[in-house]
């Protein structure tokens, strides 16, 4: 959509016919893009969508932005990247610029994508250009949207880099060239590993504060008054989403390939499991029942979006059910979810429903969370997102992650 707004003619290519149909009907399946924006793009004749890969022959630039998930053993799954590259090499033409944007480990563009594309008989740097530029998207962030977030770019050759910079300079306010595709690939992993390690660390501090009668939220606020050398991170119900808990394990994979390892990544991954188990255990403790009835508020991995990919809230839901708690949920962005093969629907909230449950477990702090309704009617509340602060905690029925003073 940003390319379209800058006057480029854009074709969206996807193998998912449901997405193509949705786009053609003017229905956006991405929360940050409105139906109105999509309809205007379609009406301008600058944008179209298709599942026919013949269009690859007709374009000057191909941007690959396919998923890069993990396999069951937590090693990288590059099947989608490889399939996209195979599709492109059958249609590639001289002079094209191809950019990989999917998050991946250093070396993917050069060692995996480049050889596949060169099976066409054309060669990078001579016949076509190949670059890497990581996606930097924070869903729901209105301050830093796509256009005003600096764009990192690295090329297989200097000329490849220059071609990619030339493209992205036309749509981004700031483009940051780096020396290689490996440097660009590592940049995304460093950003997300930094967050992965620090959030895991602060979650460990939250578990510690529960045992030593200290309010971690008070400590964070006090530490944040230091004008240098400290950046605040906040505890929560585990690190979720399709980037932060995944990307560091891509880095761990390539380090193992080189005979290296990262204890920080390993321990952070372990802590991300432990915080889930801790929240489940504390839920039972606060409810003071062997098989409590639990009302979960919020399943998405961050507020005000409808994305539950790799959400720790789903893990918590699942573990509670496995431990025979009676669990219902409400999330205005998730009308239905599958837990252990069973479909669950988001329930309506009212004072009676809330009061009938042994505990309300807050896992996502959506902007319109009915905090007062919960406080007035719940028997007990376990707040993992610091929805309640200061005087409201004195009501007695509210317990908070990281606040050991609220035993």
From TrEMBL:
SUPFAM superfamilies, per the entry: 6-phosphogluconate dehydrogenase C-terminal domain-like, NAD(P)-binding Rossmann-fold domains, UDP-glucose/GDP-mannose dehydrogenase C-terminal domain
Residue ranges annotated for the UDP-glucose/GDP-mannose dehydrogenase C-terminal domain, each copy included: 295-390
Superkingdom of origin: Bacteria
This protein's name: Nucleotide sugar dehydrogenase
Keyword Nucleus: no
Family assignment from sequence similarity: Belongs to the UDP-glucose/GDP-mannose dehydrogenase family.
Gene3D superfamilies given in the database record: NAD(P)-binding Rossmann-like Domain (3.40.50.720)
InterPro entries for this protein: 6-PGluconate_DH-like_C_sf (IPR008927), NAD(P)-bd_dom_sf (IPR036291), UDP-Glc/GDP-Man (IPR017476), UDP-Glc/GDP-Man_DH_C (IPR014027), UDP-Glc/GDP-Man_DH_C_sf (IPR036220), UDP-Glc/GDP-Man_DH_dimer (IPR014026), UDP-Glc/GDP-Man_DH_N (IPR001732), UDP_ManNAc/GlcNAc_DH (IPR028359)
Keywords associated with the record: NAD, Oxidoreductase
Pfam family, one: UDPG_MGDP_dh_N
NAD in keyword set: yes
């Amino acid at each position: 959509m940003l390319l379209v707004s800058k006057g480029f003619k854009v074709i969206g290519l996807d193998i998912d016919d449901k997405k193509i149909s949705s786009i053609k009907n003017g229905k956006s399946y991405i929360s940050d893009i409105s139906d109105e924006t999509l309809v205007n793009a379609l009406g301008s004749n600058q944008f179209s969508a298709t599942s026919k890969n013949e269009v690859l022959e007709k374009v000057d630039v191909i941007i690959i932005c396919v998923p890069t998930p993990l396999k069951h053993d937590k090693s990288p799954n590059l099947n989608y990247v490889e399939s996209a590259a195979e599709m492109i090499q059958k249609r590639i033409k001289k002079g094209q610029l191809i950019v990989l944007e999917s998050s991946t480990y250093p070396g993917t563009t050069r060692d995996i994508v480049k050889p596949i594309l060169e099976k066409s008989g054309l060669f990078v740097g001579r016949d076509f250009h190949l670059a890497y530029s990581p996606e930097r998207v924070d869903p729901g962030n209105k301050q830093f949207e796509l256009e005003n977030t600096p764009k990192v770019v690295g090329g297989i050759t200097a000329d490849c880099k220059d071609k990619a910079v030339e493209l992205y300079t036309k749509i981004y306010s700031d483009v940051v060239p780096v020396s290689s595709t490996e440097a660009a690939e590592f940049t995304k992993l460093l950003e997300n590993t930094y967050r992965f390690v620090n959030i895991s660390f602060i979650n460990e501090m939250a578990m510690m504060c529960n045992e030593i009668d200290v309010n971690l939220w008070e400590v964070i606020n006090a530490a944040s008054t230091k004008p240098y050398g400290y950046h605040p991170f906040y505890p929560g119900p585990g690190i979720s989403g399709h980037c932060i808990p995944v990307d560091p394990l891509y880095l761990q994979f390539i380090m193992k390939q080189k005979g290296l390892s990262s204890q920080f990544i390993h321990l952070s991954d372990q802590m991300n499991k432990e915080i889930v188990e801790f929240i489940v255990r504390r839920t039972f403790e606060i409810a003071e029942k062997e098989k409590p009835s639990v009302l979960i508020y919020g399943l998405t991995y961050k507020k005000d979006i409808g994305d539950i990919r790799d959400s720790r809230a789903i893990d918590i839901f699942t573990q509670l059910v496995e431990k025979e708690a009676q669990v219902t949920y409400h999330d205005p962005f998730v009308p239905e979810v599958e837990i252990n093969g069973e479909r669950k629907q988001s329930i309506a909230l009212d004072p009676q429903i809330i009061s009938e449950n042994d505990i309300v477990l807050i896992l996502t702090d959506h902007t319109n969370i009915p905090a007062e309704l919960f406080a007035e009617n719940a028997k007990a509340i376990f707040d993992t997102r610091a929805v309640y602060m200061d005087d409201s905690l004195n009501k007695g029925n509210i317990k908070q992650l990281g606040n050991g003073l609220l035993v």
